[in-house]
Write a structure and sequence with these properties.
Blueprint lengths: L5 E13 L6 E13 L3 E5 L6 H9 L6 E10 L2 E2 L5 H10 L1 E4 L3 H4 L6 H13 L3 H14 L5 H5 L8 H12 L6 E5 L7 H18 L2 E6 L2 H7 L2 E6 L2 E7 H6 L4 H8 L40 H5 L5 E4 L2 E3 L2 H5 L1
The structure holds adenosine-5'-triphosphate (ATP) and magnesium ion.
The site of adenosine-5'-triphosphate (ATP) has 15 residues, from strand 2 and helix 1.
């Protein structure tokens, strides 16, 4: 990977959440490192509570107030986002990086028409007005396949369906031609047909705008559809990372294997939403020493209880953190 190819590089990111008492510290993200190339789509997959959203929010620097990045670097076009001022971050979020949240209603203000909400970033960041603004808005509505844009733009969020709202959020997210788009479970709130349409849309936008995309998902079907590579997270860490085919065909970490085994039969590349796997994820405020998956792992050996496994490379661009991988 030449450095010019890399848009985003996250190095040893640690995001902790401090409890009200000041004693309980939840290690939501605990030493995450990865690089994202220009034009690449990377999936983040893992059970609920594994730190996927916290990783995304850390990159955007829109963490809830109790959460704080306590270590690491986030390099975007080579510049560390963690040293940027709030004003610089606002500008970057307007112009270069944007995020689609799981619930479109959270991103939209119920008191304003969708038109005024779409216009806002175009006015603020691109300084568009008058005919140029109107033209750009129509163009964006057509990019996200919304018919009769003039009528739609006058509506309020509650007058639209979930699928339509997610398209509006998509239009806002790409309005200023960002280089990075992060989509956090972008289709979870949608019914299956609308989900498929939204994935088509994401693919089209990505390819036409040469976007780099991070997709957070529970769903291997979504990952298979969109991603070049995926990283599998468990208890705030990456446990396996590799090209999507490699992960499907030669998963190496027992957690990845368990996740793949939990996809309902016959839906390998279909709507592979995960069923739960046996056991409970650990309390991120009281992590055991060693590998946090050890208590649930079918291949556990004594060493797993003692030492956290480092990253073992198993193929080009494919690595897993597991002592059994080192032994094989
Ligand atoms: N606002 C918050 N206050 C306190 N703890 C939080 C908050 N948000 C998340 N956490 C904790 O941080 C950890 C990681 O959460 P995160 O939301 O990143 O998980 P996730 O992988 O996105 O899960 P999901 O698939 O359910 O969205 C969890 O233990 C969660 O309980
Ligand atoms: Mg989440």
């Amino acid at each position: 990977m030449g450095n010019g190819d890399i848009l985003l590089q996250v190095k040893d990111l640690k995001t902790y959440i401090h409890g009200r008492d000041g004693l309980r510290v939840t290690k939501a993200v605990d030493g995450v490192s990865f690089a994202l190339r220009r034009g690449e789509t990377l999936g983040i997959i893992g059970e609920s509570g594994s730190g996927k959203t916290m990783t995304a929010l850390s990159i955007m620097r829109i963490l809830p107030s109790a959460a704080r990045v306590v270590g690491g670097e986030i390099l975007f076009n080579g510049e560390n986002l963690l040293t940027k001022s709030a004003a610089e971050m606002r500008r970057l979020r307007g112009e270069k990086m944007s995020m689609i949240l799981q619930d479109p209603m959270v991103s939209l203000d119920p008191l304003f028409t969708v038109g005024s909400q779409l216009a806002e970033p175009l006015r603020t960041h691109l300084r568009l007005g008058g005919a140029a603004l109107a033209h750009r808005m129509t163009e964006l509505m057509s990019a996200v396949s919304i018919p009769s844009p003039q009528q739609r733009l006058k509506q309020y969020p509650h007058q639209m369906s979930g699928g339509m709202l997610q398209r509006i959020v998509g239009a806002i997210a790409i309005s200023c031609d960002p280089q990075l788009l992060i989509a956090d479970e972008p289709t979870t709130a949608l019914d299956p047909t609308v989900q498929a349409q939204f994935l088509d849309l994401l693919e089209t936008l990505r390819d036409s705008k040469h976007l780099s995309v991070i997709v957070v998902t529970h769903d291997f079907g979504v990952a298979a559809r969109l991603c070049d590579r995926v990283m599998v997270m468990y208890a705030g860490r990456i446990v396996e990372m590799g090209p999507i085919r490699e992960i499907f065909e030669h998963p190496r970490h027992p957690y990845t294997k368990a996740l793949l085994a939990s996809i309902p039969d016959g839906t390998e590349f279909g709507t592979g939403r995960l069923k739960s796997i046996e056991g409970q994820p650990p309390d991120l405020a009281a992590l055991p020493p060693g590998c946090p998956f050890a208590p649930r792992c079918p291949s556990v050996v004594p060493r797993c209880q003692r030492d956290y496994p480092p990253e073992f490379r198993v193929a080009t661009e494919h690595a897993a953190n597991c002592w059994q991988v080192s032994a094989s």
